[in-house]
Structure formats: C-alpha cells, structure tokens
Here is the input.
Amino acid sequence: MLMDKKVFLDETFLIGKGGHRDVYIHPQDPTRCIKINARSVKDHNVEMKYRNSRKRRHLPPSSLLTRYYGTVDTNLGEGQVFERVFDYDGSTSKTIDELIMLEIRARNEKKSVKEVLKTEKEIPPAATVLFTFREVLFKENIIIPDMGAFNYMVQFDTPKNWRVRIVDDIGSPTLIPIVYYIDFLGAGHVRRRWLKFIREIMTLYPGFLTEEEIRGLTPCSKKGIIK
Here is the structure.
C-alpha cells in the first residue's frame, strides 16, 4: 500500500546503487531503507512475486531475507521500504565480497581483518561466512536467480554474533516459477545456483579458497571439487 506522505531523498541518504535499483536510508527511520527503481522494475516485481508465494504457503519467516514494509511516495518516484541491514554500532554491514577483499588485503599485510579495520568486531574468515550462509540457505530453500557476493551482507548484532542477510536479487524470473511451490525442485535450483556462485568466487579470487574449503562448500559436486 502506498503511503500518503511524500518522502524527500537526495544524495546524502544514498547508500548503494544496484543493477536496477538505488538504495537510500529512510530519512524518517534509519532502521529502514528505500529502494528506487532507477533503471527497471523487473527485480522488484520478481521479488514481490516470490515474497507473496511464501506468504501463501505460510512458510516461516526467513533469517536471511530482510523485512518488507510496503511502498512510499518519494520525490524520485515510488519507493519500496525494506529493513536496513546495519551493525549494532550503526555502521552499514559489509558485503561478502567486501570481506573477501579485506581478507586478501589482510593476508598481504600479514594482519587479521580485525586489525585492518581497527574494530572490536570478531570478523570471521570469509570461508566460515560462506559455510554458514550455505547451511542456512539450503535449510530455508531461498530461491535466487543468480548469486552475487555483493548481495549478501554480514550483520553483527554484537561484536561476536553475526548472520548473513540477503539484501537484493531474490526469486525466479521464469514466467511460471514452479520452484516456489515444489520443494525438491526448489532445492535443486538452490544447489545449482550455489555451485555457480562458488565457481564465480574461484574465478574472481583465484587461490582465495583452499581445496579443502572448496570440498566443504560444494558437497553436491563430483568429488567436492568444481572443475
């Protein structure tokens, strides 16, 4: 439902630009963000179709998905209001690809990511984040069209407690997404997307994951190693 009161957005509230949507901190509620369909409405329509399918099936709330609060009128057009993912200290949570790049930098400097960031947060190794993410993703069977590490954030509730959150790109763009309603087909879809995701990480960051880590992350591939 579109809210009556118009919200004014400018560059000071901008926190991210995606392939199709720009993301702003909600000026009246910093715990929420507003997504504007700057280039296409396709992603939003796909996401809403998927979220609605989960409601119709009475599936339990997902720990990975952010909450959706509806739409709002802004000076930039209609916006979609979502839970904003940020850490206990108010900082915007880092994406998995940001953590990978930080870990690579830390290795080169012979430091920990915690030392590089000069933070009290106990930053886990990116491989640990990926293991945890895979476990929850498979359990919740979240349908994703194409996986990208920039769409997944590691949110700290305390200096030691964290979880992965999906902030963009969910659902299936197919005309009749039967994977929403037949669980074993959905599980197969998730496994295939996950294997492609790990393959892309291996391509983008060669040598970052050890063979042992790859075997642990890809148990459904032949001998655990993606070729």
Observations:
- The first helix runs from residue 42 to 56.
- The helical segments are 42-56, 96-108, 113-117, 126-140, 183-204, 211-217.
- Residues 69 and 81 are 5 Å apart (CA to CA).
- The first strand starts at residue 2 and ends at 7.
